[in-house]
Structure formats: structure tokens, C-alpha cells
Design goal:
The chain has a five-stranded antiparallel beta sheet with strand order 4-3-2-1-5. The protein has one domain: Ferrous iron transport protein A (FeoA) (SH3 type barrels, Roll). It has 73 residues and is an alpha+beta fold. A hairpin with a 2-residue loop joins β3 and β4. The protein has two helices and five strands; from the N terminus they run βαβββαβ. Keywords: Iron. GO terms for molecular function: transition metal ion binding.
Length: 73
């Protein structure tokens, strides 16, 4: 299954769900809701963290957190 971590820079995806219930509550409060389109905007020089665009703003996530956000195929 594809996760947010698999996106390349400037690639878009639509959130399908989450694999971590506790983290999902925090992410949903920040606008990462199922059905919402996200795009990978920036990747730190060492690859972690990443910045995504969601709900009209940029959100910084660790790769570990991004790997828990499932995307539609």
C-alpha cells in the first residue's frame, strides 16, 4: 500500500486513511483528513523531515509520521 512517504517532490496524492490511531487524531486536527489532496513540497537535505502542502498551508512531518498516512491508489 502506498503511503505519503512514497511521494516524490511536487507529486500529489489523496489521503485514504492512517495506520496509527493516536497519530491520526493529531494529523486530522491539522487538516490531514481522508479525501484531502496533499503534495510533497520540500525534503530536508538529509531526507528528514519533509514539508507537505495540505488544506492551503505547509506542514512539516517526519518520515516516520508520513509512512503512517495511507494514500489512494
Amino acid at each position: 500500500m502506498r503511503t505519503l512517504r512514497h511521494l516524490k517532490r511536487n507529486e500529489k496524492g489523496v489521503i485514504k486513511g492512517f495506520t496509527d490511531d493516536e497519530l491520526s487524531v493529531k494529523l486530522m486536527e491539522m487538516g490531514c483528513l481522508p479525501g484531502v489532496e496533499v503534495s510533497l513540497q520540500l525534503i530536508a537535505p538529509l531526507g528528514d523531515p519533509i514539508a507537505i502542502e495540505v488544506a492551503g498551508y505547509q506542514l512539516s512531518l517526519r518520515k516516520e509520521e508520513a509512512s503512517k498516512i495511507l494514500l489512494e491508489d
